[in-house]
Design goal:
about 450 residues; alpha+beta; Rossmann fold; 2 domains; 16 helices
Length: about 450
């Protein structure tokens, strides 16, 4: 019998596992520079924690089970409930604002497809205690810096809206079920224009109302800047009776886009009045990032969830966050030619001319690794010729050869594997004579290699 991963799960081999670690390291570095502190939460939580946030329907999407203590638990499908639970338990001890970043492996029992597996990794960025759109600005600017650091700043567009505005538009157009309308809007990218119009009708919009909505979208899309688009929307809907909450959302968006323009970030932002994000806990601003060609699922999604902490026993704490998934980011980097298709070999390969020199070579390997070099050596009693072939296969930059004649003089031989040049150097000063840096990429197809370090 041949054993394979379960459907929706995957093995990740070298060098891809290291490349994924490079992405995580990039996100971690950018987040830390932006002042986010890292937290970790459990991989298994009470199923009730998910039900509090998302309702009973969430159970169908989880890997949930009854544990040996008779408790209903689940493999965590998203990090927001865990982070909210953690903040609620420490709200009185944590001086606000709080900025947290978390890296989690998550599980959802969904139909696998491009950009979606049943097991995946996700980074979440959350800010607690900031009631104004400065929190949204901080999240969007940090995520923009992440994509810039990954080398794809021009491949990403950020779509921004406010649920209060989206809900106000729906109510003004005659929808009697605003929450259902928001769920339809959230599915817009998965539907053809005809199917989208049909589902809007099922959410309560008459044919005439759908026509007004589509004409509004066309008018807003025709404007050159986000602030012009917001002004056009305000002008077009002046007689619709949007309501106080919708106008509050409109004002909030105006301020956010103004701050974005001041910060030099608005160029990659797009006001999208169709954006709603179907999760019911969002209360105001919502945003998503997509590749500009529109070929993939959302790169990340998030928004403001000012009432969620109260659900978990905390006080009223303003909150805003986003989550970046690993799968669509990988697809984007591959398409853009930024996914590393190569790996770098070790800095040093220590070889021996005869087996009796192994004790000296092991000592040298230990010393060089303690000095910070990446070092490989023979573990299989290979001949010197096969050791040299192994060093070349692994892409070692330098071979340190221990041979009887040189060791009798207190020396070893350094061989540059790129040029073939050799020199004898004192055994005691090998580390000082070795060049820093890994070898050229090996086993690749010409793509970039991960940065050193």
């Amino acid at each position: 019998m041949t054993w394979q991963p379960l459907r929706g799960f995957r093995d990740i081999l070298p060098p891809d596992a290291a490349h994924r670690a490079w992405i995580t390291g990039t996100i971690r570095s950018v987040a830390q520079r932006a002042g986010f502190e890292e937290v970790e939460t459990p991989s298994v939580e009470s199923l009730d924690l998910l039900k509090v946030k998302s309702g009973e329907a969430i159970v169908e999407e989880t890997f949930s089970f009854t544990d040996k203590g008779g408790r209903e638990v689940t493999l965590v499908p998203e990090n927001t409930p865990s982070v909210a639970r953690l903040l609620a338990s420490r709200a009185k001890a944590e001086p606000l604002p709080v900025k947290w970043v978390a890296f989690s492996k998550l599980w959802r029992y969904e139909e696998p497809q491009a950009g979606r597996t049943r097991e995946f990794s996700q980074c979440s960025l959350d800010i607690f205690g900031v009631p104004g759109v400065e929190a949204e600005l901080e999240l969007l600017s940090t995520s923009a810096a992440i994509f810039e650091e990954l080398g794809v700043p021009d491949e990403v567009v950020f779509r921004v809206n406010d649920r209060r505005l989206a809900q106000g538009l729906g109510t003004a157009l005659g929808s009697q079920d605003p929450e259902r309308l928001l769920r339809v809007l959230d599915r817009r990218e998965k539907l053809s224009p005809e199917a989208f119009g049909q589902e809007l009708g099922e959410a309560g919009l008459t044919e005439e109302a759908r026509g007004r909505f589509f004409r509004l979208l066309e008018a807003v899309a025709a404007e050159g800047s986000n602030r012009e688009a917001l002004s056009r929307l305000e002008e077009e809907t002046a007689s619709w009776g949007l309501g106080e909450e919708a106008h509050a959302g409109l004002s909030s968006l105006k301020r956010l886009f103004a701050l974005g323009a001041e910060s030099g970030l608005e160029e990659s932002w797009r006001f999208d009045p169709r954006l709603a994000r179907g999760l019911a806990y969002y209360t105001a601003t919502v945003f998503e990032a997509y590749d500009r060609r529109g070929e993939f699922r959302a790169l990340f999604g998030g928004g403001r969830y000012d009432r969620l902490i109260e659900l978990f026993g905390g006080g009223p704490v303003p909150a805003c966050g986003l989550a970046i998934g690993d799968l669509t980011v990988e697809l984007l980097l591959r398409r853009a030619g930024r996914w590393p298709t190569t790996r770098r070999g070790p800095e040093v390969y220590v070889a021996v001319a005869s087996a009796d020199l192994k004790p000296r070579s092991r000592l040298l390997v230990h010393q060089l690794r303690r000095a910070g070099f990446s070092v490989e050596h023979d573990l299989m009693d290979r001949t010197l010729g096969r050791q040299m072939k192994e060093a070349a296969r692994r892409g070692a930059r330098t071979v340190v050869l221990l041979a009887p004649e040189e060791l009798s003089r207190g020396e070893v031989v350094l061989r540059n594997m790129q040029t073939g040049q050799q020199e004898a150097v004192p055994f005691a000063s090998v580390g000082a004579r070795l060049p820093r840096g890994r070898s050229a990429p090996v086993e690749g197809e010409g793509g970039p290699a991960p940065p050193e370090g």
